[in-house]
Here is the input.
Amino acid sequence: MKLKSILVTASLTALPLFAQQQKAVYLDASKPIEERVEDALKRMTLEEKVAMTHAQSKFSSPGVPRLGIPENWMTDGPHGIRAEVLWDEWYGAGWTNDSCIAFPALTALAATWNMDMAALYGKSIGEEARYRNKNVLLGPGVNIYRTPLNGRNFEYMGEDPFLASKMVVPYIREVQKNGVAACVKHYALNNQEIYRGHINVEVNDRALYEIYLPAFKAAVEEGHAWAIMGSYNQYKNEHCCHNQYLLNDILKGEWGFDGVVVSDWGGVHDTKQAIFNGLDMEFGSWTNGMTWGKSNAYDYYYLADPYLDLLKSGKVTDKELNDKVRRILRLVFRTNMAKDRPYGSFGTDEHALAGRTIAQEGIVLLQNRGNLLPVDPAKTKRILVVGENAVKRMTIGGGSSSLKAKYEVSPLAGIEARVGSAADVMYMPGYASPAVAEQDKKGAKAEEKVIDPDKLRADAVNAAKEADVVFFVGGLNKNDGQDCEGNDRSSLGLPYGQDKLIAELVKANPNTVVVLVTGNAVAMPWVKEVPSIVEAWYSGTEAGNALASVLFGDVNPSGKLPFTFPVRLEDNGAHALGEHPGDSINVKYNEGIFVGYRWADKQKKSKPLFAFGHGLSYTTFAYGKVTADKKAMTADESVTFSVTVKNTGTREGQEVVQLYISDKKSSLPRPVKELKGFSKVKLAAGEEKVVTFTIAKDALSFFDDAKHQWVAEPGRFEALVGTSSADIKSSVAFDLK
Ligand code: BGC
Here is the structure.
């Protein structure tokens, strides 16, 4: 009797609380997000608020358990959903249900010059993230390709702010349709890996606004990204994860960003700056998980106990805290607690096919003398494949973007599968890179390799003499000092003696195709000897199948370079005029706005090895003359350019028609021309289409440092239409009145 009455009393007192929770606005997903945010905020204690602003594990931060508000779970990003790591350690948790589809690297996506591909990418990776119960995807990355030595260029979308801006928006929108926030990174000026943790970037406002910020701005204003990641480096001597100028003034001020600023892992250095300079969530501070602290090392984070102490002692008010928590609650209501959040899917055939489609559209045919490509397997008896990258797994390594892929089709496997019994395929390594231990495994050791480089090369060259065609598959890889986070490359050249090997292979067999698997430009001292060169990028799970479909002509290549391949390092503005990597404290971007083709265009004497926007097809295209719908426009008007493009070959193909604008006379120095439009058109053999581009004042403007605003100066402009930045087919002049 007694026990029963206690139970009754307990449930009666519990009832009003429960009922109250049921009515809570924050739990009602049909209510406007801002109402839910305010309702939840007023129910939270100071401790609960502070807890939300910093990590509780390597990749998660607390929710509010008492109120049923779930945790935030982040994942790398940006090429696939990273395998689960242990709560407090970087190596794998050993789950068996976390093998993802690896999508092509973002350089490959940018090389498609196709916004539909960016949307397909975002949709697919967003579904994978959602299925794995992540609500923040740490990607995409849009740092501008300033120097070919940056070890992390493969995670970004190339050298041009317009191209990166156009490609990033559909990626973000489609990811977020899954109730998963895209966390755009690394904001900003993270253009090198050497000294990344502290290097202070000195750049003028013009270059900042015209070159380095536009893709982030588009991500915020057009993509409506729900999260952004601060970068490790400094700007104006403040770390970018708590930077008054970048975060408060520009991102949250000028652009009105209402999402969360997440620190890069270990990018926070000071409690006061973290409170006041725009950071919302702190991750990865350098404590060694649970073993290095009192009861919980995360309590030591800058935004943990030190913040709570300041609040409790009244040294800071809760004004900034409430702003941070509002943003974090907004994130939760947009994702984990969103209305009708879909369920996602993981490791599917559909996602693998999406990855393959993107890879196929991104592969760039750089050179094809004598139409050696595509190869007809029926007319080819002996195929020799040479090179480590024909067999090396490229979804592993490179830093935080490393993946545990469900499978990865190597170039060799792709070629073998495509050729079947039609021809003999033989493989020779030709060269070898040093062995490295797999970074995700605890105590992993590099496997011993005994290598005689001369023998490897000689064996491959001898075999080449007997083959009908040689596919050399080399380039860079994901090892430290190559295409890898944490370090930069030491030179533009190919590593491991590949130049010598390629030169000897092509001498032994003139039917040699060089396939480069890289995320960066490389020097090609053998470019005149080798008839056909293909840039295949890091293409993920379906890499080998995608490559084979291009080599054997099932797919007509249509990728275009998202960055310039210079002949020498000195032909790049950052190296000619600017600095890399700086003096270890500061790095000066003296080249200003003259990045990539903007620098190459200025050079009268030297031409790039392969220009920005370059890429060939197995068919040919003829361009008509570009026309404008008016001779002059006012600042409120737009102007439309039209050009006819015809497929003059014998097979269907896609062409990326590019529009550049040139300012003929300006009060400030301007690039010779700048990309302001592109359109990928599919044309059947003999088919012709009219491609149009409409531009407004913003396409004519430059950023005036002195006025701190965009300015379009009246005067003469020219619209140039071409197939690459170095191959302009025609132009038309017009005036801004
Ligand atoms: C990288 C980020 C990454 C994070 C978490 C950092 O070292 O710079 O891009 O998202 O680690 O793995």
Summary: The chain has a mean pLDDT of 95.
